[in-house]
Design a protein that fits this description.
The complex is a heterodimer of chains A (178) and B (355).
Chain A lengths: L1 E9 L4 H14 L3 E6 L9 E9 L13 E4 L2 H7 L8 E5 L13 E5 L1 H7 L6 H13 L7 H8 L8 H12 L4
Parallel strand pairs in A: 1-4, 4-5, 5-6
Antiparallel strand pairs in A: 1-3, 2-3
Helix pairs in contact in A: 1-5, 3-4, 4-6, 5-6
Chain B lengths: L4 E4 H11 L4 E4 L6 H10 L6 E4 L3 H13 L4 E5 L1 H16 L4 E7 L15 H5 L10 E3 L4 H18 L2 E7 H5 L1 E4 L34 H21 L3 E4 L6 E4 L2 H16 L4 E6 L1 E3 L3 H8 L4 E6 L5 H8 L6 E5 L8 H12 L6
Parallel strand pairs in B: 2-3, 2-4, 4-5, 5-7, 6-7, 10-11, 10-13, 13-14
Antiparallel strand pairs in B: 1-8, 6-12, 9-11
Helix pairs in contact in B: 1-2, 1-6, 3-4, 9-12, 10-11
Classes of the chains: A alpha/beta (178), B alpha/beta (355).
């Protein structure tokens, strides 16, 4: 089993962090994983994206060009990657930032107003984790029980006060009934 | 659960260098290599090491020459344009027979080029890293784990043969994160009686110099150096084979190009095409013998590279053009897709007449 995950949005939305969290979850599940960010000027306010692969076998190319899971956190990302998603894949859309619907009929589309949920719950900046919580619920690619372990790995020591907020955001997404 | 940690290639390489005993780092920031310098700036002061951001790449490589002269493990890192600036110093390291590590996290060129991954410094690393007759040991990692393992290896080989070593990486390897195990491995002790450590009035002074105005003497030094290179070529070639047992088509690729090729091979195999890969891990010494032997049993080779046809020349030389060598390449920061490689595999498979 291999999951090719592409997370895409604006720089500053925590795209790379979300990817890192997923990669650590995979590692803690003894999967083969890779995490590849876009880097350079495009990150500084432009689009950012991140390829994450979780696999039971050795990862070949770390570049996700045909995702089976796409997380789109802005309209340009959905426009750019919707057609690259494999048939039968899953597309997660932050519906508070993207009003458009997924046009493809051969993929499963999931909508969650993550950015609005984040600001309504004093979790500004954590729409990324709300998206991930929802993704874990809908895909089951990693067990939700283990989120604490991966969070402890990806939240730096000097920011441990943010651990609880990240967890709240993940739970909010996980429990979202859309 | 494993004891592996998730690290960026650049950071893993830097930590590996420290574990290998490197306590001197001189560099200058440049994308996509900057994490090496950033990591060193955090770590070195804590372990009584030296991190120094030089005023330029040229200054940094000359600082490397200084420390290397004392027999201590030392390194610098940069990306393509910065490596060009270091070229003079690399030639001096070779001329002085000094071990040192130079890391090139390649980006698109020529000139300032771009900042996305590339392998277009292949010629520079394997042929023209500076003026004069010399070689660098050139190691090409294809995973974050190899960024670690080959850093140990590079320091070791550099000291063993008293010559500079280069890690030829690229933006993908530098920026990606993979699980990595940071086992230091054994550090071998080599004779360093040549090093400038202070005579304490107990021995004759050592002299480290690349200037030699006597043609006979300079010729002798060159010939002796090439005798050493012969031993390196005989003993230190590293490569990895993937699905080569029954292969009719052989891909040759290193670094990220090898990773993409692996996916393409898996797809081609699923479609019944017998294709495999020989992945050079040392680019110098190049795995000539295995390629020449392979030329007798495959019908074609494919060079998958992020350059306009550089690696392909070594494949043609090694195989003495016995079989066609096709080129599959993207440049400028682009990376061949799995399907690009797959199409080339299908094209190669149509070439008739396997032996």
């Amino acid at each position: 089993m291999t999951n090719q995950i592409l997370i895409a949005g604006f720089g500053g939305q925590g795209i790379l962090f979300a990817g890192k969290f997923l990669a650590y979850e995979g590692l803690l599940e003894d999967k083969e994983v890779s995490w590849l960010p876009s880097y350079g000027p495009e990150m500084r306010g432009g689009t950012a994206n991140c390829s994450v692969i979780l696999s039971d076998t050795k990862v070949g190319s770390p570049i996700v060009s045909e995702p089976d899971i796409l997380i789109a956190m802005n309209l340009p990302s959905l426009d750019k990657y919707e057609n690259d998603t494999v048939a039968g894949g899953k597309i997660f859309v932050d519906s508070s930032l993207i009003s458009k619907k997924v046009a493809r009929t051969d993929v499963d589309a999931y909508y969650i107003p993550a950015t609005a949920m984040a600001s309504d719950n004093n979790l500004t900046g954590l729409a990324n984790m709300i998206m991930l919580g929802y993704l874990i619920k809908k895909t089951g690619i990693i067990p939700f029980e283990n989120i604490d372990r991966a969070l402890a790995k990806v939240v730096p020591a000097r920011k441990q006060d943010l651990l609880g907020l990240n967890k709240t955001a993940l739970e909010l997404g996980y429990n979202y009934e859309g | 659960m494993s004891d592996k940690v998730l690290m960026k290639g650049n950071e893993a390489l830097a930590e590996a260098a420290i574990m290998a005993g490197c306590r001197h780092y001189f560099g200058y920031p440049i994308t996509p290599q900057t994490e090496v310098a950033a990591y060193m700036s955090k770590r070195m002061p804590k372990i009584n090491g030296v991190f120094l951001q030089a005023e330029s790449e040229i200054a940094a490589i000359n600082m490397v020459i200084g420390v290397a002269s004392t027999g201590k493990r030392v390194m610098t890192s940069s990306s393509s344009p910065g490596i060009s600036l270091k070229s003079e110093g690399i030639s001096y390291l070779a001329g002085c027979d000094l071990p040192a590590l130079i890391v090139n996290v390649q980006r698109g060129g020529p000139g300032l080029g771009g900042i996305q991954p590339s392998q277009a410094d292949y010629f520079h690393a394997t042929r023209g890293a500076g003026h004069g007759d010399f070689h660098l040991l050139v190691l090409a990692p294809a995973s974050v784990q190899e960024m670690v393992n080959l850093t140990f290896k590079a320091f070791d080989l550099a000291e063993k043969y008293r010559m500079p070593a280069m890690i030829l990486s690229d933006g993908t390897m530098g920026q990606m994160m993979e699980p990595v195990s940071l086992d230091a491995g054994e550090i071998h002790e080599y004779d360093k009686s040549w090093a400038l450590t202070g005579t304490k009035c107990e021995r004759k002074p050592n002299i480290i110099n690349s200037l030699c105005l006597q043609p006979e003497e300079l010729e002798r030094l060159n010939v002796e150096r090439y005798e050493r290179y012969k031993i390196v070529e005989r003993d230190e070639v590293m490569y990895e084979e993937y699905m080569m047992d029954d292969a009719d088509v052989c891909i040759v690729a290193f670094g990220v190009a090898a990773r993409v090729s692996q996916n393409a091979i898996d797809k081609a195999r699923a479609a019944g095409i017998k294709v495999g890969m020989i992945r050079p891990i040392t680019l110098w010494p190049f795995p000539k013998k295995v390629l020449l032997d392979t030329a007798d049993r495959v019908k074609a080779f494919i060079s998958v590279e992020l350059s306009m046809g550089q690696l392909i020349e070594d494949i043609e030389l090694a195989t003495r053009c016995k079989k066609p060598v096709l080129l599959c390449s993207r440049v400028g920061g682009m990376i061949p897709s799995t399907d690009n490689v797959l199409d080339k595999i299908k094209e190669a498979d149509k070439i008739g007449g396997a032996n």
